[in-house]
């Protein structure tokens, strides 16, 4: 797991693995490369003995300012039918599923801008702490695409409630850390200098938990959260996103 990554900084300290998005010059925009590297890290977790907690953070001024839209034209140029875009969308979905379902407890440590795909990565983590200066936004409709990144819709609806999420998606309005905490997008909002100590307070008891008990608890939480879903509509997300982008590009 500890190979050299181009877009992530990965460090292990005992039972804790810290994974930092490391493209600050792009606002840690989520590219195919970042998704590939996150899949490599998350795919190795269940085979990695002794890790109990993964902390996901971002380098630079922002946690993540969204998906890397600069990739879309190149992918469409290579395959006008949208095959590359669908593959990228499915990769995002796999990353988000892995964050939610991995045996270890995943913690999002948020600061600065948390936008679009950044919100997606965060809400699929089990626990989320953010600086009280965080700025959040779900901008997809304002950019002319559906909110289909990573299967985010059902997770947001379940975690935060349909009425408020409907408003935030339809208006694409900015919202602050206090609102994010009210919506349970954040579990804790604290001054940025207290972020690390807040995360550390969560980690301290978690590293002492039985691995099998943690694994069973996460299985139960995920199973009950999905109990009323007759079919997983997020399977269509990559198709929806690639279709919308293909049409939008063709219309220019």
Automatic annotation (TrEMBL):
Family label: Belongs to the enoyl-CoA hydratase/isomerase family.
Cleavable signal peptide: none
Entry protein name: Enoyl-CoA hydratase
InterPro entries: ClpP/crotonase-like_dom_sf, Enoyl-CoA_hyd/isom_CS, Enoyl-CoA_hydra/iso, Enoyl-CoA_Hydratase/Isomerase
Residue ranges of the TM segments: none
Source species, domain of life: Bacteria
């Amino acid at each position: 797991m500890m190979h050299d990554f181009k877009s992530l900084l990965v460090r292990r300290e005992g039972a804790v693995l810290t994974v930092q998005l490391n493209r600050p010059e792009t606002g840690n925009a989520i590219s195919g490369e970042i998704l590939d590297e996150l899949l490599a890290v998350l795919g190795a977790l269940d085979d990695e003995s002794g890790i109990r907690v993964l902390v996901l953070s971002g380098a630079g001024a922002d946690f993540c300012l969204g998906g890397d839209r600069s990739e879309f034209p190149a992918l469409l140029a290579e395959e006008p039918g949208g095959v590359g875009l669908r593959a990228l969308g499915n990769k995002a979905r796999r990353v988000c599923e892995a964050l939610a379902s991995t045996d270890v407890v995943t913690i999002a440590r948020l600061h600065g801008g948390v936008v679009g795909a950044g919100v997606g990565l965060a809400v699929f983590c089990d626990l989320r702490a953010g600086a009280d200066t965080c700025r959040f936004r779900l901008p997809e409709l304002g950019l002319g695409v559906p909110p289909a990144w990573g299967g985010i819709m059902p997770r947001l609806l379940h975690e935060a409630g349909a009425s408020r999420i409907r408003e935030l998606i339809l208006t694409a309005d900015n919202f602050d850390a206090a609102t994010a905490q009210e919506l349970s997008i954040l579990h804790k909002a604290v001054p940025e200098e207290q972020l690390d100590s807040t995360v550390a307070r969560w980690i301290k008891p978690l590293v002492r938990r039985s691995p099998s008990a943690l694994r069973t608890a996460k299985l139960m939480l995920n199973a009950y959260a999905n109990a009323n879903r007759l079919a997983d509509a997020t399977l269509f997300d990559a198709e929806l996103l690639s279709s919308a982008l293909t049409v939008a590009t063709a219309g220019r």
